[in-house]
């Protein structure tokens, strides 16, 4: 498992590119679809845009943990991803608005037997008009909710990352303190070892002196007695 500081950023960026490629294919293929197919395709695009937005938010969070020496190049990649996301969001909104207008115009086109005094035609056409307006408002509201959720997630991620950074600094400080304590213990152990060695040396010297003195005393006593 890759544990480098850029691994998660690269993973999120790869997922984002896959979502963007899928979105691009759907948006470019809309022209060859009928009304209902385009609506279904745009609904899928909307969900994939939300997923891509989430990937960008995660990239924005992960970039805070990348070392300063290489962070600028990843900031440029993040900026490019945000630009692509904004461009496809705009294209999605334009196509959604265009589809809504086409639906409204189609539903408001007079049919044989309709009176020109009724600008909406039958009650069915009025229902389609209201449904189209409600659909457009609902799509706008969901897009705003997604943006708000992304901002809240970004703020929460930044707080978590800040707490993790503080905890890492505390762990590093504790590690430095432990290393200093280990060094002090090692020095104390060396001193004790040296003191014990000197003590044994002194005992050996003292024993040798006592043995020599005893030997001299024996010689003196023997010489007196002889």
Automatic annotation (TrEMBL):
Residues 103-124 have a biased composition (Low complexity). It is a single-pass type IV membrane protein. It is found in: Prevacuolar compartment membrane. It comes from the Eukaryota. Keywords: Coiled coil, Membrane, Protein transport, Transmembrane, Transmembrane helix, Transport. InterPro entries: SNARE, T_SNARE_dom, v-SNARE_N_sf, Vesicle_trsprt_v-SNARE_N. GO terms for cellular component: cytosol; endoplasmic reticulum membrane; ER to Golgi transport vesicle membrane; Golgi apparatus; late endosome membrane; SNARE complex. GO terms for biological process: Golgi to vacuole transport; intra-Golgi vesicle-mediated transport; intracellular protein transport; macroautophagy; retrograde transport, endosome to Golgi; vesicle fusion with Golgi apparatus. Residues 103-125 are annotated as: Disordered. The chain crosses the membrane at residues 204-223. Residues 128-195 form the T-SNARE coiled-coil homology domain. GO terms for molecular function: SNAP receptor activity; SNARE binding. Residues 42-98, 161-198 form a coiled coil. Belongs to the VTI1 family. This is Vesicle transport v-snare protein vti1.
């Amino acid at each position: 498992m890759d544990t480098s500081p850029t691994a998660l950023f690269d993973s999120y960026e790869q997922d984002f590119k896959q979502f963007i490629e899928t979105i691009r294919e759907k948006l470019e293929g809309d022209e060859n679809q009928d009304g209902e197919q385009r609506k279904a395709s745009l609904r899928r695009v909307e969900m994939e845009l939300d997923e891509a937005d989430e990937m960008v938010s995660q990239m924005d969070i992960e970039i805070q943990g990348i070392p300063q020496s290489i962070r600028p190049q990843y900031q440029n990649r993040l900026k490019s991803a945000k630009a692509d996301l904004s461009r496809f969001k705009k294209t999605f909104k334009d196509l959604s608005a265009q589809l809504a207008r086409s639906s409204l115009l189609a539903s408001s086109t007079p049919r044989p037997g309709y009176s020109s005094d009724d600008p909406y035609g039958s009650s069915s056409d009025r229902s389609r008009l209201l449904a189209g307006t409600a659909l457009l408002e609902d799509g706008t509201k969901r897009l705003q909710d997604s943006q708000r959720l992304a901002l809240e997630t970004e703020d929460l991620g930044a707080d978590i990352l800040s707490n993790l950074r503080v905890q890492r600094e505390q762990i590093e400080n504790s590690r430095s303190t432990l290393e200093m304590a280990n060094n002090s213990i090692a020095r104390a152990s060396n001193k004790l070892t040296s003191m014990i060695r000197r003590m044994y040396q002194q005992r050996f010297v003292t024993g040798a002196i006592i043995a020599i003195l005893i030997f001299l005393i024996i010689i003196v006593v023997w010489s007196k007695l002889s």
